[in-house]
Amino acid sequence: MFRILVFILFVLALAAGFAWLADRPGELSIIWQGQRADMSLMVAATLVVSLVAAVMFCWWLVRVAWTSPHSIQRYFRARKRDRGYQALSTGLIAAGAGDAANARKMLGRTKGLLSADQEPLIHLLEAQAAMIEGRYDDARKKFELMADDPETRELGLRGLYLEARRLGANEAARQYAERAAEKAPQLPWATEAALEYRSEAGDWDEALKLLGDGRSGSAEEKKTYARRKAVLLTARAAAKLDADPKGAREDAHQALKLDENFVPAGLIEAKAYLREDNLRKAASILERLWKATAHGDVARLYVRARSGDSATDRLKRAEKLEAMRPNNAEALYAVAEAALEARDFARARAKAEAAARLSPRESAFLLLADIEDAETGDQGRIRHWMNQALKAPRDPAWTADGITASEWRAVSPVTGRLDAFEWKTPVSELQGPVEEGSADAVDEAIRTLPPLAIEAKPARIEPEERVEKTETARPVVVAAVAEPAPVRTVTPEKAPEKTPEKTKVETVGDMEEERPFYGLPDDPGVKEGAVAKRDGTSSFRLF
């Protein structure tokens, strides 16, 4: 474009010059070697311009003739290079598509047209072709050559890293990732892989150093950085919670600054305060987390924050959680569980049924079965709630890559992925019909609850838990379990001639325990040693 503009300006200037001479006519005389030549000024100017043009044309002819061998050679070299790059491009596309034959064919053509020193991508095409054909050793050698070349170092290291991961050589993969992160920290895959390996090894300090300060980047990248740093700080706090509660509390506090609703960080900070006997601050953190998330782990830690509390005190703390988040399934479940421990069966049943209506799940129906067992001991009603628990969805748990954990972890034990655990309903294999929980289904389960059996006897439970003092002065709670009455079968033709004695009553401490009667030593069919011993040891009865 610039040359065209210069040419146009030159033509305009030449035309303007001739026009100026035409407006000013004159005569020009030249005497050369005794000869005189007279001509007009316009003719003289035309001759001068023509002479310059002729000289330039002659110079161009001489230059073309002189440089023609080199020009011809350069033309054929450029044509060859273009054909080589075309073959290289076609080969890379074939390798990406999995066409091994075409990739190998294009590789041979590329090598004939281009030099490997001139174009390093030939090594990449050769490595890809070798991997498609299953020659992994050859591919690894090519990646090593690329890793030694500064121009293709990052590409070679990535190829070696992926090959090591494929073979399961985690230590080699970690070294390649560390090397790539050191040489090129801007590579996301290298930083991510090195971060995961350091986290999997529990080297939280080095992982935080590798993470950097996160000042640069977009808003989304800064958000991701804050989340990862919060996870790493929480993991380091969990590691030092028992040995250094103060340090754990500081790390967890920094994590909460980055993510104020991060439940694992809040739980660790509260546990650290509890180890320092600072119940007020621990309760404040748990209450703030409870208002924001209503997490089940927060409720459990809050209710049992003080080990010396009685069941009534725990019930009061659970009711405080319910007051903060009314009509919440986790709050209702916590109150029902605490009420069961306090032997307030009416409140426990009401809250458990309300929790089941809001969030039908396995633990709610199991809690109803526990309440039924403790209050009535009716096996039919207990089995009814157990059946509902089998059909209900599972409880939410910390889940990552198909496995569940009782506590949050920073790294998945399956894939080594950082921040993989989420609080959600775990995925499990269906062993039978699983019904979708709903309030209508829970109401139907409550409506179809079997009536209390006539033979069922309530468990012998005192208003308060009975405690026996041992030599070490540790309390031992004695619980009574109701046993179903034996069923007597009567046929229409003939009634049994004799009903055996129902039970024997043995005294254990202050309680009486009923045991089935199995016969006397001199009864027919009872072998020697078949009767239970009085010293409490068990013996086998064979009829």
Write the topology of this structure.
Elements: H1 2-23, E1 27-32, E2 35-40, H2 41-97, H3 100-113, H4 121-132, H5 136-148, H6 153-167, H7 170-183, H8 188-200, H9 204-211, H10 219-239, H11 245-258, H12 263-275, H13 279-293, H14 296-303, H15 311-324, H16 329-341, H17 345-358, H18 362-375, H19 379-391, E3 397-400, E4 403-405, E5 422-424, H20 439-447, E6 467-469, E7 475-477, E8 503-508, E9 511-516
Please give a structural write-up.
The protein has about 550 residues and is mainly α. The protein has 20 helices and 9 strands. The chain has helices at about 1-25, 40-95, 100-115, 120-130, 135-150, 155-165, 170-185, 190-200, 205-210, 220-240, 245-260, 265-275, 280-295, 295-305, 310-325, 330-340, 345-360, 360-375, 380-390, 440-445, and strands spanning about 25-30, 35-40, 395-400, 405, 420-425, 465-470, 475, 505-510, 510-515. It has a 3-stranded antiparallel sheet, with no helix packed on it. A two-stranded antiparallel sheet has the order 1-2. Strands 6-7 form a two-stranded antiparallel sheet. Helix 16 (about 330-340) runs parallel beside helix 18 (about 360-375). The protein is elongated and about 150 Å long. The model is unreliable at about 455-543 (pLDDT under 50).
Summary of the model, kept short:
By secondary structure, this protein is mainly alpha-helical. Helices cover 58% and strands 7% of the residues.
